[in-house]
Structures are given as C-alpha cells and as structure tokens.
Amino acid sequence: MADWPDRCVRFLASRRVSSPARDGLPRAPPPLLVPTSESPPMRTLAATLGICVFGFLQVDLASAQQLSQPLSVRQAAYDYYDYFEYAEKPAPTPGENTDPAIKSDASQASIGCDLTTGCDPAACSPALACRQCSRCRGGCGFGEWLSGITHGGWIQVGGTANGSHPTDNYNGPIMTNDRADTAQMNHLWYYFERKIDTSRGFDIGGRFDIIYGTDWRIVDCYGNGLENRMNGADSLYGIALPLMYVEAGYGDLSVKIGRMPGILGYEQVPPMANFFYSHSYSICYGEPVLITGMMGTYALSDQVSVLAGFHQGVHQFENINGEINFQGGVKWTSRDGRTSLAYCLDAGRNDLDGLRDEYIHSIVFQRQINRRLKYVFQSDYGFRDMLAGEQDTDYYSFINYLFYELNQKWSVGMRAELFRDEDGTRIVGAGNLPNARGWMGAPGYAGSFTELTFGLNYKPRANMLVRPELRWDWYAGDANPNGPYPYPFDDGTKKSQFTAACDFIWMF
Fold this sequence. Notes:
Distance between the termini: 27 Å
Number of strands: 17
Helix content: 10-25%
Order of helices and strands: HHHHHEEEHHEEEHEEEEEEEEEEE
Largest sheet: 16 strands, antiparallel, barrel
Strand order of the largest sheet: 1-2-3-5-6-7-8-9-10-11-12-13-14-15-16-17
Radius of gyration: 23 Å
Shape: globular
Structural class: mainly beta
CATH architecture: Beta Barrel
C-alpha cells in the first residue's frame, strides 16, 4: 500500500476515457451519482478522489499531535481588502476572526533579528529583540522594520471527475479546476510580507508573491499581462506574480501601490479563503480579480470603512488606451460583528480605443445566524456603453451561500448561482489567451449559466485542508456562433454537466 498514492496519481495523468454516445440531450445529474462499480465514471471518480483520501490518511496520522484550534472550517467574513490575510491563519469558524495559525519555527521566523523578552540591555542590543527594544528605548531603527517581515506559503493539488468525459479534457467554463478526469497542481505559492502597524504613527510595508502551477492562466491578464511574457506558448504550468505592492499607512489611513487584489465580490484567489474547490462564474467572468494601480482604505469608525483608488484597467497589467479606471466602495459591519454589508464598484474604459464606458458593481451581504450557521448573498451587475450603431452589453448574477459547522474538523456548504450573460460577451476560455492553454470556448454564449455546488471541508490540523465537492452546471441559451464549441460542455455538445472534485491544501 505504500505506493498506492503514486499509482493513483499516475492513473489520473494517463487515464483517457472515451466519451459515451452523444444523443444531443442534456445529461441529467441523478444517474451520475449512482454509477455501477464497472462503469468508467465510477473508476475515474474513485481514482480522482483517491488523492483526497490519501490526504485524509496522512493528516489523521498526525492528529494525536494536533493543538486545540478554533472551531473549524467556515467560510470566513474576510475583509475585502485583506485579500491574502488567510495565508497566515487557520480555518476559522464561519464569520469569526481567529488568531493566526501556529506554524513551524521556520515559517514563523521573522527576518532581521531574534525576539526575546524583557528590557534588559541584552534584550535591547542592536542584534537582538528589536520590537522589545522599541518599547524600552524608542526603537532599533531599520532592524525593527526588518523584524516585521514574514514569509510562508502553501501547495494546492486536486482532481476533477467529469461525468461526460470530454475528449478535450476540460470542464468547460469552470476555472481553476478546469482539467477533466485528471489531477492538477493548481499552484505552489510562496510570499514575503511586511504588514504595517500604524499604532505608533507612520509605517511602511508591502508584499511579494510568486506561484507556479496551472492557476497562472487564471491570474494572467487577458492579453496584456506579465505572465504571458514569462511562460511559453501552450503552457499548462507556468509562473505568475499575483501580488507586488508597497503599502504605507498612518492612523486610520493606508495606501497600496502596485499589483494588488481587486475589492469586488466574496470569493478570493487564495484557496483557503474559499469553502469550495471550484469558483463561481461571477469571480471568474464578472469581476476584476487583480488590479495594477493604487488603492486607499480609510476607517471612518469601527463599523464603517471606505475604499478608493485607480488602476490600469480591468484584466490589464499595463495601460492599453491612456485611460484609468476608478475602483472603490464602502463596507459596514454591525457592532456585534455578526452582520456586514459591502458595496464596491469599478468604472472606466477598458477597450483598445478607450471610447466605451464600462461599469461593474458587487453587493455582498453576510450574516452569522448563530455560532455554526452562516449565510452570504452576493449580487453583481455590469454593463458596457457602446458607441452609436453598436449594441450595449450587460450581465448580472445572484449567488447564495450557506455554511454549517458540524464540529471542530468538519463543515458542510452549499452554493447556488445564476449568471446571466445577456449579450454573450463575458464567458471566454483561457485557451483564447495569448500563450495560454485551456478550454477554447469563445465569447458568444448569450444566456443563463446556473450552478449548484455541495461540499465538505475537513480540517484536521491548522495547516491542512481537504475539500470534496459535487457540482452541477446548466446553460440555458442559444448555440454560440463563434469558436469551436456551440455549447459550453462536453466538447461543445451539451448544455449541462456534472463534476465531482476534491483538493488537498498544505500550508507551511
């Protein structure tokens, strides 16, 4: 049994199951849930989920050494601007903020000086405890600043079994876990960060992240990015630099300059910050995930914060038309912290000519109903105001999330989404991007995309997470006249799809 995980991975990498006979009708989900033990769907699904079973076995071996952690997996009420905050935290209770996860000495270590206790001369020497020295003698200069630098990372590996077994091995418009009937390393992620502390006045920090994996195609800007210049043509795996920014702050005001997360929507790029392995259509096709520019945040009170800034354009690393976009919003949190409401928007001109106004907004409501149950609602709307003689385009979406914590290790979740692309301008495959490999679906799906996802989160330790899920997708609309896929699923032949997926995340 020692080589069972390796055999499982080799099976996933090599297995190609021929597509069943196509009858032109959407495939109903229920029969796929009960395939026979001899059917290809069952064998493929079993092999795919084997990766996660291996993760279960590995982490349970260490459970005897586990430290007591806050009640487990969630989805958390993450601040819209603390994009990568989760990289240093264990999975919190839904809607509950918790202390950082306990890490190994190597990953917890700061760069610059060792930290001791007390205010004796040895503790305040320049080579030793800078932060203690700052309390005793007013600071250690640059050594104190260096002592605030932290670093860490994680690896995410998963697999998705597709009930239709498409011959192109892609799950249609599903992003991140886009590979069908095979395993993929979404990313190996590492970061360096210095958070600002304005309690004693002005402070400066920043963050730098680098990843390697299949997610580089999702991080990359659409045709005007940094990553498509670093990675070879038709690369499934590649390098990406999702975050590169400097942050400065004073009092209740902070400003970031560089490449940073957008502030719209509920789901985020770091996998630990989301309950499900797969993503919603809204984050993949409706929202600016990363921006290059400047963003300021000001806390008006303990309950209300405002955000405002500008950037180079939606999905643009460099400016393509001489125009800049505005992005901003406001967030309110109740006094007891159980309810929050956020409204964020992005407005500007993103076309090559710089003549067509575009607007996107996102409204997110979160409610911690009780200690175990949390509800989230999100609504997005976007439009592009075209020139005379052209047709204006718009789209909108509604998403409902429900999360319930069973115990310290297990949580269950549900996501139901409707994404309406009125004019067929939003859904596009990563394979259409320069130097990117992926699903080749072209814009032109004028209709409604609906997805229903059920999932589990298993978190035996603060730095390990396993997320199995079942997902159904449907498309209601006309055939796409553009590109090789008239319909979005099963090599362009179907309007529906069933997938079973699971990923394993190890944080270090």
